[in-house]
Amino acid sequence: QLQPVESGGGLVQPGGSLKLSCVASGSSLAFGWFRQAPGKEREEVACTSRSGAVKSFLDSVKDRVTISRDGATNTVHLEMNSLKPEDTALYSCNARRRWPNGRVNDYWGQGTQVTVSS
């Protein structure tokens, strides 16, 4: 069973930076980083296609985050800069496999907490 594992969360002061990592076994996976703050719906922060050529970002963070992937280690990184208190949330990694018949399997990690506070 494919199980993404996240790391890199923590407490950071406003204006600081964090780099989140997600490791997932398997090939031909697309990845996405999602976050959910207490009392709010989950939202997609950034995603990258299987090849890494296509990326998309949440409007409120697109100038402050980058997403990259290391194919050799099946690791996806989310680097966040100029962090704000409103970025506080549980950040989860999603790995998606799309089969030739169109079926999609989604795999979720447990999440890593990011808290932005002085």
Question: Could you describe the 3D structure shown?
Answer:
With 118 residues, the protein is mainly beta. The chain is 0% helix and 51% strand. It has no helices and 11 strands. The chain has strands at 5-7, 10-12, 18-23, 30-36, 43-48, 55-57, 65-70, 75-80, 89-98, 104-108, 112-116. Strands 2, 4, 5, 6, 9, 10 and 11 form a 7-stranded mixed β-sheet that branches. A 4-stranded antiparallel β-sheet has the order 1-3-8-7, with no helix packed on it. A hairpin with a 6-residue loop joins strand 4 (30-36) and strand 5 (43-48). The protein is globular, with a radius of gyration of 14 Å. The N and C termini lie far apart (39 Å).
Q: How much helicity do the residues have?
A: under 10%
User: Low-confidence stretches at least 5 residues in length (pLDDT < 50)?
Assistant: none
SSE string: EEEEEEEEEEE
Nearest-integer average pLDDT = 94
**Count of strand segments:** 11
Helix/strand/pairing class, anyone?
mainly beta
What kind of sheet is the major sheet?
A: 7 strands, mixed
